[in-house]
Design brief:
This protein has 95 residues and is mainly α. The chain is built from three helices and no strands. 80% of the residues lie in helices and 0% in strands. The radius of gyration is 17 Å and the shape is elongated.
């Protein structure tokens, strides 16, 4: 295995780790509130992990993986946009 291939393998595993850890974040948030919760961090980790994994899939030229991660990235981005749009306005201090 070449150095380039090893680096890309590391990138792929890093993306998958971030993508997996989003479930841990969601689980902890749900346990803390004693009900199902999907925190903002879940969507950011989904987007970041998905994009890193997409880069790895493009490097590997895997059309199935590319298609899945591409669609996912749009869904995660759209959820972040919807959450931001419906979030209450920030409180500002006029001193």
């Amino acid at each position: 295995m070449t150095t380039t291939e090893m680096i890309w393998l590391g990138i792929g595993f890093f993306g998958q780790t971030i993508f997996f850890m989003r479930w841990v974040v969601q689980w902890i948030a749900s346990e803390r509130s004693a009900e199902s919760r999907v925190p903002m961090a879940f969507w950011y980790m989904s987007l970041i992990g998905g994009l890193i994994t997409l880069a790895y899939a493009v490097y590997r030229k895997d059309p199935v993986f590319i298609a899945g991660q591409s669609v996912g990235a749009f869904v995660y981005l759209r959820n972040l946009m919807l959450i931001r749009r419906t979030a209450p306005p920030a409180v500002t201090s006029d001193k």
